[in-house]
Amino acid sequence: MSVKGSGSATKGANRTNPDLRRADPSSAAAARPENIRNVVLIGRSGAGKTMLLESLLYASGVVTRMGSIVEGTTVSDSEATAIHQQRSIGLSAAPLAFDDIKVNLLDTPGYADFMGELRAGLRAADAALFVVSAVEGFDAGTTSLWNECERVGMPRAVVISRLDHPRANYDAVLAECRGAFGDSVLPLHLPMRKDDTVSGLLGLLSGSVSEYTAGDPRPAVRPATKEELASSDGIRGELIEGIISESEDETLMERYLGGEEVPLETLVEDLETAIVRGTFFPVLASSSATGVGTAELLEVLTRAFPAPTERNLPTVTDLSGTEAAPLTCDPDGPLLGEVVRTTVDPFLGRVCLVRLFSGTLREDSAVHVGGHGLAERGHPDHDSDERITHLYSPLGSSLRPVPFAVAGDICALAKVASAETGDTVSAREAPLLVETWDMPEPLMPVAIEAASHGDEDALSKSLAKVAAGDPTLRVERNAETHQLVLWCMGEAHSEAVLDRLREQGVKLQTVDVITPLRETFATRATGHGRYVKQSGGHGQYAICDIEVEPLDRGAGFEFVDRIVGGVIPGTYVVSVEKGVRAQMNKGVRAGFPVVDIRVSLVGGKTHSVDSSDAAFQAAGALALREAAAAGSIQLLEPISAVAVLVADDHVGAVMSDLSSRRGRVTGTTSVGGEITEISAEVPEQELLRYAIVLRGLTAGSGRFRREYLRHEPLPPGIAVAAKA
């Protein structure tokens, strides 16, 4: 906030240290929850979150020089895929110490495909820092996340970044933020320019100017000139009135409007209270390249953002699902933590990033690890007892050993064999479960297969490891098509998953996703099944005649015995039905199951010695195949009921696109907030990449859900992937 008029508390980096990263300087500040701040960085891809984190780590002495996204040397982006794509793809934690406060910074991906990682960051944090580029502004996805934080009352601040860019427009982006986020979004500083570059900040409350020298995170502070103060009178008055309106002192506004000077200490105290309460949202300015705004931002993070003790804990139950007694963020309370990210290290095995809500976790502790509520995502409920042998403070991918971690802190555990993202860590003698956070549904299928038979086992093992750390990934072995399908959030997510598998030495390839079609008879047909074999001893003899007719959609299968005179005994009639059913499961034309038909057994012959159950099953299957060859077979495709949530501005484009996908719009409903829900029936084949298309049509803000509805005839000329 720079209300003290001094930047002396900012600790500069030790530039004589040859190592890029130091030992953990924040460990001493983590003895009590009151001295911890957990802050998640949120913003669109390219907003500058990763480099802002780098500048904060550099300013606080955690690193001796800032990393580079291009060179792949940033603290938070260490995965090979993230370095290659030059964007964050996973949640990363980096602690720093400032004024005896430990700040756990959580860098999150800005791309919509990695929404699960961002939601994990929101779960682990107590406050959010929205990073908005002074060049591109923000997107609809950022607004959606702001509203999500609003619903849960999470304290927020806005950082307008990249002030050093030639096309940076601080005033325009500030106005954009206020228009989207509300009137309670107000700046604490104004950028000061020198030679067409931002060289410092004018503190609107302190009336001082912080002047930065490139490369030095410690600003020189001087009083603002009369001209500088005069130029900021309007926005300063608006800021003061905004703070006073949040004050619990109801007389303060009247006194201020009456001309009374409000003490700076009173304004600062009311400001900090309003930020923690989540009703006032300060705007800060920064440039990671020049260091402008770093000291002011560190001051807001440590002084204005809430400690874990000031936030409510998630709902907790015992293993039976009974709600447990409310817990507080108490180091002496029952142990309770949650795994917010899981990665696989080639030497340490599974490494879990854990947010502790209650209790104290120490090395050599016996704990219970439980995961419930994600069975639909391919993560069956599981419980196990583990022993914590390694406890770390994480700095990106680097792990620094620590003897303990207290409630409110974020730590890393290694070699916890059963832990998955979303699991609860609690005391072995008193196991608990934390209510799972809301995770987006993966809606883009990617079919994969091992490059060779010898790679199948490696693929299975590696896929289990990757899925354990990614609750937004759903792994499915389709019972109808027999394909191994990865349900992903989008193209970038699927690329990251495949890269992680290949990094573990798995040889695989992607194949076309097969839509699970059905076959049916379009016309009546007859079939003759003759299965006669004689090869010495008992042979095989079975002859049957059937009639097949189509039924209404969804009617299923009917088998009718119309045998007259007992030419086929009842035991063999059952055998014919078995054979017909088996052939229906295999398909008669394209290899897809046959549905909605009536099969009538009308005739046949038996042999007193050579007829058998197996022979009549074979004859029944042959008869159905012959009927299919003589009749007309129709393919049926699955139709999904789709609900699309879009901003009103995009309704026309989305409806037009649905129509082009052979979809039928069945209705629209306004759900408030200038959002419309479009209901439609769309062929499943047209939805294979719809997650990507919808994102492009709606600037990343559109969401949809789908549910199987029925099968309908596939129009002629529509190509589909064939079943092997």
General description of the model:
- The chain has 16 helices and 36 strands.
- Strands 17-16-22-13-14-21-18-19 form an eight-stranded antiparallel beta sheet. It has a seven-stranded mixed beta sheet with strand order 2-3-1-4-5-11-6, sandwiched between helices. Strands 28, 33, 34, 35 and 36 form a five-stranded antiparallel beta sheet that branches.
- With about 725 residues, it is an alpha+beta fold.
- Mean pLDDT is about 90; it is low at about 1-30.
- Helices cover about 25% and strands about 30% of the residues.
- Helix 13 (about 570-585) crosses helix 14 (about 615-630).
Number of strands: 36
- Order of strands in the sheet with most strands: 17-16-22-13-14-21-18-19
- The DSSP helix count reads 16
The helix content is 10-25%
Structural class: alpha+beta
Strand content: 25-35%
Pick out the low-confidence regions: 2-29
Determine the mean pLDDT: 89
Organism: Arthrobacter methylotrophus
Domain Tr-type G: 34-309
Region (Disordered): 1-30
Biased composition (Polar residues): 1-17
Layout of strands and helices, then pairs:
Blueprint: E1 36-42, H1 49-59, H2 80-85, E2 92-98, E3 101-107, H3 115-124, E4 127-133, H4 140-152, E5 156-161, H5 170-181, E6 185-187, E7 189-194, E8 197-203, E9 208-211, E10 220-223, H6 226-231, H7 233-245, H8 252-257, H9 264-277, E11 281-285, H10 294-303, E12 316-317, E13 336-345, E14 349-358, E15 360-362, E16 365-371, E17 382-388, E18 391-395, E19 398-401, E20 404-406, E21 410-414, E22 424-427, E23 433-434, E24 444-450, H11 456-468, E25 474-477, E26 484-488, H12 491-503, E27 508-511, E28 518-521, E29 525-533, E30 540-550, E31 557-561, H13 570-586, E32 597-605, H14 613-630, E33 633-647, H15 651-660, E34 664-672, E35 675-683, H16 690-697, E36 703-713
Parallel strand pairs: 1-3, 1-4, 4-5, 5-11, 6-11, 31-32
Antiparallel strand pairs: 2-3, 7-8, 8-9, 9-10, 12-23, 13-14, 13-22, 14-21, 15-20, 16-17, 16-22, 18-19, 18-21, 24-26, 24-27, 25-26, 28-33, 29-30, 30-32, 33-35, 33-36, 34-35
Helix pairs in contact: 13-14
